[in-house]
Design a protein that fits this description.
Elements: E1 8-9, E2 12-13, E3 23-24, E4 30-31, H1 39-43, E5 46-47, E6 57-58, E7 69-74, E8 86-95, E9 101-104, E10 112-115, H2 118-129, E11 137-145, E12 151-163, E13 172-173, E14 183-185, E15 191-193, E16 206-212, E17 223-232, E18 238-241, H3 242-245, E19 249-252, H4 260-263, E20 274-279, E21 299-309
Antiparallel strand pairs: 1-2, 3-4, 5-6, 7-11, 8-9, 8-10, 8-12, 11-12, 13-16, 14-15, 16-20, 17-18, 17-19, 17-21, 20-21
C-alpha cells in the first residue's frame, strides 16, 4: 500500500532477487525454477572470488538461460540463512545477452535484499539460499522486466552482508508529545493505536520519536528495511500492515519509490528506532479520492526501522 510506483529502477529491480519465481520459457508462459544445482546456464560462467573487490563475471555472450539457476561462488562463515530470514546483500546485475553490467553496488547503486522463501525467490534460489551462510558470494541466472516492460536475461552476483535482526524496534523509549493516539505493542512488537485521533489533523507531516535505536543513521540512498502499520486519521481504521503480511517492507530512500511523507521523514534515524508519522494528503496520496482510494486522507504510520544498508562510499 505504501508504494507509490514500481520498484523497478533503470533496467532492473534493485530491491529483489532476479525473477526466479516466475521465469518464462520461449513461449512467454510462466514456468517454475527447478534447476537448483546451477545447471547449464552457469556452466560457462566464471565469477571472481575476491570478496574485497567488485566481482568480475566472465562468459561468452550471448549466454542462453533456458532454466533458472543458482550456486554459491564463495562460501561464507557466518550464520546459515533459514526460511523466512530477511537478508541484505551487495550485488551487481549483468545482461546475459551482452555481458554489460547494468547495475552495481560497487559503482554507486543501492544495496538490495529479500525475505527468503519459495514464494519470493523461487525454488532454485531457495534451495541454494538455505544452504548459504552470511559472507557468501552467490550467482543466479534468471529473468527480469525493466520499468519499460523490456525483458532481460540476467546474471546476478551478490555478497550476502547480513541477516536483518531483530525484526522489531529496540532502544530507548522516546518522549512523544501526547497530541496523538498512544501506541501499544503486541508481544511480537506489532503496534496498535489506543484510540482514534481527535481534533484537526496537522497540515504538515509530524514525526514523533517513540523508540530511539542505537544503530547507524538512515540517509538518502539507503536500502531501508522496516515494519509498519498505517491508519486513517478520519476514523482510526487500519488500512495496511507489513506485520500482518509477515514480511518487512524495503525500499530505496529518496528515489520516489514511496509517498513523499516517507521519503522525506525517515532520514537521520538510528536503526532500531520506531517513529509515528502523521502525513497530510499532499505528502501522501493527494487530495482526490477518485485518483487513489486514500486520496484526501491524512494518514498515521508507526514505522520500525530495522536496517539501513548504505551505498558504497
Amino acid at each position: 500500500m505504501i508504494r507509490r510506483r514500481t520498484l523497478l529502477t533503470t533496467a532492473l529491480a534493485a530491491t529483489a532477487a532476479i525473477g526466479l519465481a516466475a521465469c518464462t520459457d520461449d513461449s512467454g508462459s510462466a514456468s517454475g525454477a527447478s534447476d537448483g544445482g546451477g545447471g547449464d546456464a552457469l556452466a560457462g560462467v566464471t565469477v571472481s572470488e575476491d570478496l574485497g573487490a567488485e566481482p568480475t563475471v566472465e562468459f561468452e555472450a550471448p549466454l542462453d538461460i533456458s532454466a533458472a539457476a543458482a550456486e554459491i561462488v564463495v562460501p561464507g562463515d557466518g550464520d546459515t540463512i533459514a526460511d523466512g530470514d530477511v537478508v541484505v546483500w551487495r550485488h551487481l546485475y549483468v545482461d546475459a545477452s551482452t555481458g554489460e553490467t547494468l547495475q552495481s553496488w560497487w559503482q554507486g547503486a543501492p544495496a538490495s535484499g529479500v525475505q527468503v522463501s519459495v514464494d519470493t525467490v523461487g525454488q532454485a534460489a531457495f534451495d541454494v539460499f538455505t544452504t548459504m551462510a552470511v559472507g557468501s558470494r552467490f550467482v543466479m541466472a534468471g529473468w527480469q522486466q525493466s520499468s519499460t516492460g523490456q525483458s532481460y536475461a540476467l546474471l546476478q552476483v551478490a555478497d550476502v552482508d547480513r541477516i536483518v535482526s531483530p525484526l522489531r524496534a529496540e532502544g530507548e523509549a522516546g518522549d512523544p508529545s501526547g497530541d496523538y493516539p498512544a501506541v501499544t505493542l503486541a508481544e511480537d512488537g506489532a503496534p496498535a493505536l489506543d484510540g482514534a485521533p481527535e481534533g484537526e489533523a496537522p497540515t504538515e507531516t509530524v514525526r514523533e520519536q517513540l523508540i530511539t535505536g542505537s544503530g547507524d543513521s538512515t540517509r538518502t540512498g539507503d536500502y531501508l528495511t522496516m515494519h509498519y502499520t498505517g491508519w486513517k486519521w478520519s476514523d482510526g481504521s487500519q488500512f495496511d500492515s507489513s506485520w500482518e503480511r509477515g514480511a518487512p517492507f524495503s525500499f530505496v530512500q529518496g528515489e520516489g519509490q514511496v509517498i513523499p511523507g516517507w521519503d522525506e521523514n525517515l532520514l537521520d534515524l538510528p536503526v532500531g528506532s520506531q517513529v509515528m508519522l502523521v502525513i497530510p494528503p499532499a505528502e501522501a496520496y493527494g487530495e482526490d479520492p477518485e485518483a487513489h482510494e486514500l486520496g484526501g486522507e491524512t494518514l498515521i504510520f508507526v514505522v520500525d526501522v530495522l536496517d539501513a544498508a548504505h551505498r558504497a562510499d
